[in-house]
Amino acid sequence: MTPTPSSTASSPSATGVFDDVVRSESSLRRFLHGLPGVDQVGCEARAAGLATRSIKTTSKAYAIDLAIRMVDLTTLEGQDTHGKVRALASKAMRPDPADPTCPATAAVCVYPDMVATAKQTLGESGVHVAAVATAFPSGRAAMDIKLADTRDAVEAGADEIDMVIDRGAFLSGRYLDVYEEIAQVKEACGDAHLKVIFETGELQTYDNVRRASWLAMMAGGHFIKTSTGKVQPAATLPVTLIMLEAVRDFREQTGQMVGVKPAGGIKTTKDAIKYLVMVNEICGDDWLDPDWFRFGASTLLNDLLMQRTKMTTGRYSGPDYFTLD
Amino acid sequence: MSRIDVRKTYKLYIGGAFPRSESGRSYVVNDAKGRLLANAAQASRKDARDAVVAARAAFGGWSGRTAYNRAQVVYRIAEVLEGRREQFEAEIRAAEGVTPARARASVDAAIDRLVWYAGWADKITQVVGNANPVAGPFFNLSTPEPSGVIAVVAPRGSLLGLVSVVAPLIVTGNTVVVIAREDNPLTAITLGEVMATSDLPGGVVNVLTGSQAEIAPWLASHMDVNGIDLTGVEDDELATELEVAAADNLKRVRRPAPDTDWLVEPGLDRMTQFLETKTVWHPIGV
Amino acid sequence: MAFEYAPAPESRAIVDIKPSYGLFINGEFVDGTGTSFKTVNPANEEVLAEVAEASDADVDEAVKAARRAYTRVWSRMSGAERAKYLYRIARIIQERGRELAVLESIDNGKPIKESRDVDVPIVAAHFFYYAGWADKLQYSGYGSTPLGVAGQVIPWNFPLLMLAWKIAPALACGNTVVLKPAETTPLTALLFAEICQQADLPPGVVNIVTGAGDTGRAIVSHPDVDKVAFTGSTEVGKAIARTVAGTDKKVTLELGGKAANIVFDDAPIDQAVEGIVDGIFFNQGHVCCAGSRLLVQESVADEVLERLKRRMSTLRMGDPLDKNTDVGAINSGEQLMRIRELSQVGDAEGAERWEVACDLPTKGFWFPPTIFTGVSQAHRIAREEIFGPVLSVLTFRTPSEAIEKANNTPFGLSAGVWTDKGSRILSMANRLRAGVVWANTFNKFDPTSPFGGYKESGYGREGGRHGLEGYLKGADS
User: Fold this and answer.
1) pTM to 2 decimal places
2) Fewest CB within 10 A of the end CB: N or C in chain C?
3) Which fold has domain A39-312?
């Protein structure tokens, strides 16, 4: 199945459930600081426990194809060229040219100036174009510039916008600023879906990750995303665990689903499967879908393809048999 | 015409008060030469029960005090005892028939023993506790805590022996019910008077006089007593019977040692025998 | 399509179970003079092996061997040399770790995930830890004089781990050992005997006699045993305390528990739910320190229960050798009966039962993870140790009420506290009458950390420096 923007992914902020919460800086802080705390050791132990699941044979084959469908195939380098983006887009549509049963990835993820190029190649393939906007990766720009950045990307054909939050504002406790920024960017997105990047490596604590998750969900983000890939640590299992718990609890409270995207540092099939196990056991089946879970990754795809080939041919493959871009 | 003595009535020491035995019984206590010294209360099983209730009631408050405060109270017992040493020397001489020098040495040693144990109150935790370096991100600390209510069968040595078994228990926060020597109980009650005037809360130490063989089994089988110190039990059969009874609620048992030389400096084991080790874990994270 | 996990069985080819086993006395496997019994795989009731039941005479032989080894070899050997034997054993346990884990899961029914990731690594760590003490006893605070022959009787819930808790400190302190594993789980102890042979441990230093209650009694009451160490039920612990009365035997007892796991409204809730699950479903609840009484603050009770039930629904129950199994088999038919019986009492007393909906295998001994709500202190399921995957849920409103309820039991082995408020943790930890208090965590074990109970949960400590005390004569000797 090729992912399409889901009609069920309506705007969470429209519900008005949190109107009282976001009425003032102090009410918002009270709410966020009233969320249950996270014990670091317990959270990491839980993530490590899930990572010991052993996924074999048919379940592994299922997981590999699912993971491929969830990849936001990403290139976010200063040295990106139109040629590279075209190659990446082709690969996203047909990751394994030798095997037509291999599914396409969910999206390609590029800088705004590459959106048109990507869109041109992808056409109506169903593979989305995601653009990192809002002065990615630092988020350090004036608001109007961030909004212009977003509108440009959308106008160029981006289906999804990956924005970064203002970590400076978040860490100094100006939660309402962050909330409003997300809400404004969302408005600028129009029909495009909004992913909100926290840069969890800069937020430092799981308590902050939980607060940021709720903040972004209340502000209307369709997805919450761990990292830009430019800061270490990027995505980790425990950070993703906290975010999965947040979207699970958010649905419990509002009935609305929000997606989760770990990005950066997920390089192997083994890693990807650990994430899928976590999605399965924390959130359940509903999130095991490219509409609700994505991997922000580049090299991961080739490893998935190699493992996929191993599953179908019964022998180990090598990097020479897969394209590098 | 010579003045008529005002004789002292020796009663029990329970919950900070000095009641007679609820049974109304008393028995004759003679001096070393067989002459009447006094009548002592002959405690019954119900007195033992009341003493346990008093000790249990006192346990929370006493064990909850700071170690520094318990040290001060035990030291205060030594101070008050020092001030009344002539009385104790006279009682010991009368009861045990020893020379004045022996009696004095015994009182000296008892006072010094109290001072020695008083100092342990805020050190025993440091000596027998541990920070444990577990292989993981956890704070892990083991500390000693008192076992609770301890029954004690006092040994010979009406003052020094008694002090040597009671002081290590109370300084660590336990509360005690002690059965004084049947044939030589009076000093124990006088010591109770010292304790009652030394800031020691009522019920921390309770003293029963009477028959060891009659009272001890009730304490040994009492389900609200956490430990029993059989130091003063001289009858092997009774000792075994008491240890068997103590198993009903798994009391901590210290086996008999009636021939202990009380003048030797004791080690830690009279304290540690009735201490539990509590280990607390907590994750270390941000 | 749902993400089903295909079976991921650990290979059992690594273990070689013999059709029958004798007793390990004086360094050799010998035929006993008694009868024999069968040990079965609780997950499918397959008979695994025939095992000798040691008679009084066999126990006597074992004690004699231990005495000889004590007098002639072990007590004369320097601590440094004893240490090397223990290090050797620790290393072999690591090398044969997978084999030990698989065998443990087969004989006990516990998930391979647990025997592989918890039991066996801690077993090796325990031997490493006490190996290092053997030549440092003079710094322990308990002197360095061993007691002599230690008679040790261990339970079936952590067969190899309890063996390690018993044998490692005993040997480090210079004692020799006669150990009886539980009758339903003798196999890893017998494999350990083989490891002693591989380590060239002098004959008689470790003797393993298999059998049931009678064999245990013979060990405990043997006049030439200087030390008795027992882990098991409070009932048997009391019987042992009576048996040794009037002797010079030193005793340590690790007995039952009915631990309160206290969850405050400000707890880190997702970790608390994990802690509740670990507390009662780890090892099928066959854990003396299991958090079998959940005390949850009334204001968050509904939310915690809802999360708990959701979490329990993801527990995977089944083949202990499947690497994805979270909850394995109940160790024996007898234990299953007891769990069923007490659960029925819970029903009869009016508590509300909720259990995970799952298909139980048709063969073997199984009981689904279960919680009872609406439980009060007076209920038997709130007072008696069920020793199975059954949680009793009670509520409280204030910290004092939580403490009162938690301490209102003859047991005092462990307790849990969940709150984000530091000063409250310390206050609760002070007031709980239990030997181990886990704050914002549960069921953690480490060789350096003393373990043992207050009140009827026994006396003495195992693990850490404190664990040496039970095997030495003391600083004044």
Assistant:
1) 0.96
2) N
3) TIM Barrel (3.20.20)
